[in-house]
């Protein structure tokens, strides 16, 4: 086969390939080996599915319904290109007895449209809006695998991991945010074995590219071109993008800018001194010297005094996370959170802010019970020892690796200190859960 991403090479007999793949699937589910002629992309997906604890007789779960689904779809970036998807794919889906489906970046189906009888059949396997079709939930499938590997993919019949999905064939392509490059979700065409053709894969890829072009035209600039941008999450020394140049800040200058960006009204010298220094013996002269050096670094005009304040609005990644979390956009907030705020800082105000941001986000993640968001946090450097998150993850995704990690962490909780050894520097919470 010349293209490993296409399910059937020209001239292949679909019925024979179904039989061969079914035997291969049975071999894999029985002994864990993948025989030929299973494509590498499918073999790797089967292995990921098995590691995630997906069973071949499982089914998709519906996570969003009614008003919750409607609210989530209305706020999702792909809602803006649904008219384009319908224009390009709607007639093809209806006439060919196929389905047009769109999922988010976690494989959750947002829209499923197309031929009425085909939709009724698909209802039987929960291929419906609001259901999670990520690889980690239902195994190998085109929309879930396209999101997982971040490229267009075709899944033919018995290549699907779950048996009840094996009568279907689908092709999907990821859709990216044209400004950041992050995956927003995927567009999918699902139907019969006739879709196992190079044209269907090329078709969904072209539709995805058209959607990205449309999003680039529709999306307004996030900030004005001359707005200073401050990045302070997940790094000990913040970076400021100012007038097209990148300025690397010292830790103390990073702390000062984070605080002033959050207080556009300004801070007095005494207020800034208390916010920055736990040691009461530090004199105002020390602070003034730091501010003088910072003013020289930033250039004229940005840092004013009496009170100390920034003369232009500064957009920071800290405020982005807070704004998204306050709006209930949990997935977007988690994506913007790249780590604890200035993790090495001991400035009292920074420590409090760091704890509030991380604590608020992890509390929301635990309450929301989204397995993918919990897994992202648990496997990050700042969450690898977070017992509460691992417990929440084990409750919604009780795979063997997750249970093993949780068992190890709970065993370490018996340590006399009450904290897990080797806690990530800058973590913002006690590892022993309350109670």
Automatic annotation (TrEMBL):
Top-level division of the source organism's lineage: Bacteria
Domain OmpR/PhoB-type span(s) in chain numbering: 244-310
GO biological process: phosphorelay signal transduction system; regulation of DNA-templated transcription
Coiled coil feature spans: none
Keywords carried by this UniProt record: DNA-binding, Transcription, Transcription regulation
InterPro entries to which the protein is assigned, alphabetical: GAF (IPR003018), GAF-like_dom_sf (IPR029016), OmpR/PhoB-type_DNA-bd (IPR001867), Sig_transdc_resp-reg_C-effctor (IPR016032), WH-like_DNA-bd_sf (IPR036388)
One of the record's GO molecular function terms: DNA binding
Region feature (Disordered): 416-435
Protein name: Transcriptional regulator
Protein source organism: Streptomyces roseochromogenus subsp. oscitans DS 12.976
Lineage of origin: Bacteria, Bacillati, Actinomycetota, Actinomycetes, Kitasatosporales
């Amino acid at each position: 086969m010349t293209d490993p991403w296409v399910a059937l090479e020209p001239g292949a007999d679909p019925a024979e390939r179904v039989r061969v793949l079914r035997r291969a699937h049975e071999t894999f589910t029985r002994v864990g080996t993948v025989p030929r002629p299973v494509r590498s992309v499918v073999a790797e997906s089967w292995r990921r599915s098995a590691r995630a604890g997906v069973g071949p007789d499982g089914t998709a779960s519906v996570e969003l319904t009614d008003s919750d689904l409607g609210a989530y779809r209305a706020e999702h970036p792909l809602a803006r290109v649904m008219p384009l998807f319908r224009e390009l794919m709607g007639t093809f889906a209806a006439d060919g007895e196929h389905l047009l489906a769109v999922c988010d970046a976690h494989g959750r189906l947002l829209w499923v449209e197309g031929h009425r009888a085909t939709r009724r059949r698909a209802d039987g396997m929960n291929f419906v809006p609001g259901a999670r079709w990520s690889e980690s939930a239902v195994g190998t499938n085109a929309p879930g695998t396209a999101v997982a590997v971040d490229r267009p993919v075709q899944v033919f019949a018995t290549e699907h991991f779950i048996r009840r999905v094996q009568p279907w064939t689908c092709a999907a392509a990821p859709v990216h945010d044209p400004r950041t490059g992050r995956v927003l979700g995927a567009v999918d065409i699902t139907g019969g074995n006739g879709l196992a053709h190079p044209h269907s894969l090329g078709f969904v890829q072209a539709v995805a590219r058209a959607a990205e072009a449309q999003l680039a035209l529709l999306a307004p600039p996030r900030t004005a071109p001359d707005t200073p941008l401050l990045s302070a999450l997940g790094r000990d020394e913040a970076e400021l993008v100012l007038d097209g140049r990148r300025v690397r800040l010292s830790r103390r200058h990073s702390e000062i800018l984070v605080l002033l960006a959050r207080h556009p009204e300004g801070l007095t010298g005494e207020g800034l001194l208390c916010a920055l220094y736990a040691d009461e013996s530090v004199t105002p002269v020390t602070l003034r010297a730091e501010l003088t050096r910072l003013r020289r670094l930033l250039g004229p005009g940005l840092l004013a005094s009496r009170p100390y304040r920034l003369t232009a609005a500064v957009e920071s990644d800290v405020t982005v996370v807070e704004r998204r979390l306050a709006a209930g956009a949990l997935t977007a907030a988690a994506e913007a959170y790249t780590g604890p705020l200035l993790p090495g800082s001991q400035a009292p105000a920074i420590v409090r802010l760091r704890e509030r941001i991380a604590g608020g986000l992890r509390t929301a993640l635990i309450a929301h019970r989204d397995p993918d968001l919990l897994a992202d946090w648990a496997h990050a450097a700042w969450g690898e020892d977070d017992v509460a998150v691992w417990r929440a993850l084990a409750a919604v995704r009780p795979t063997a690796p997750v249970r093993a990690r949780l068992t190890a962490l709970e065993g370490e909780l018996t340590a006399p200190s009450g904290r897990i050894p080797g806690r990530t520097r800058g973590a913002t919470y006690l590892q022993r859960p309350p109670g």
